[in-house]
Amino acid sequence: MDKELPLKTWEVYQGLVQGLGETCWKIRSVFYTASSAIMAYGYIHAEPVLYIVAAVLSVLLFLLEAGYKQIQDQYIQKSIQIERTLNDLLVNEEEPYIHKRGISTLVKTPTWRGYFKQLRWRNVLFWGPYFCVLVCSLTLAWLQPVTAESKKPCEEHPRVAVLD
Amino acid sequence: MIVDKDTLATLGAAAKSPEAYVSGSERQKLRAAFDFACSQITNHTLGFESQNRMMLRAKLNSLAVDEIPKDYSKLITILKKALKSAEPLYSSKAYQDDENEDIVQMRKFAKQGLKPLVDCIEQFA
Q1: Do B20 and B107 form a contact (C-beta atoms < 8 A)?
Q2: pLDDT reported for residue A99
Q3: How far is it, in rounded angstroms, from Cα A14 to Cα A8?
């Protein structure tokens, strides 16, 4: 068997894995900036509804990133299968391993089961930040720390509320 | 005895109930026992050991028929098959979609690689 074809396929899979990984990081950076900005704005302007928005946003962005991660995991698994073929070729195996589905970029769409799988303890670094923001925003929405204080508009900047 | 008793006992137990060796320390134990058994077999039959499993596979596959002692040719053939079928034992299962996939692969390894190897080693006892 020729090594070039599995090697090229492996490169394609690795490229896809890298692309999906970068997308995951982009989603995560949007999550960090957007959720912290919304919560800060909600705190300064005493708008508890914004804490709920931050909580909803964290759930939505978690679903989006976890969906991408499910697809990325499938391509990593495909890469591992190709590596098995390449290793067989490397050691001059008479009958190198070929996966039952052969070479394919076809992946399954994300499933709810897959989402729950992402919530396992071993993936705590993945879901932990989303969970922290969700808990913090819901706690702030419940406690409403600023609304307990009276406020009046600033004389110089009427759109800004100041505390007594 | 080609393989020491403890190692052979571990391999035998894994061949009988592969499900118990799918994860955790038992999986590590099986990996270590399998690597150790492979080294012991090649050292005893062919007089060499390899630094790692892949190098051992490459060496075994490059051997000509006349380089293998006739008494051990069957054992070496079975060892080659066992080494080939052991690949999933060393790959990460973190990315597997189906959790049962691991059990299926371990059963396959036990049936195709481990059991024939253990049976063959026991013949030399």
Answers
A1: no
A2: 86
A3: 10
* Domain ranges, ordered by start, for chain A: 4-163
Domain that holds residue B119: 5-123
Residues of chain A contacting residue B61, judged by C-beta atoms under 8 Å apart: 91-94
A116 pLDDT above the threshold of 70: yes
Indicate the residue type of B51: Q
Q: Which residues of A touch B87 (CB under 8 A)?
A: 84, 87, 97
**How many separate domains does chain B show?**
1
What sign results for the dihedral spanned by CA atoms B51, B56, B57, B61?
Answer: positive
A73 inside 8 A of chain B by CB? yes
In chain A, what is the greatest distance between 2 CA atoms, to the nearest angstrom? 85
Q: Which two tokens mark A127?
A: 């879901």
For the stretch A67-78, pLDDT in tens is 999 999 999 999
Q: Report DSSP state, residue B110.
A: I
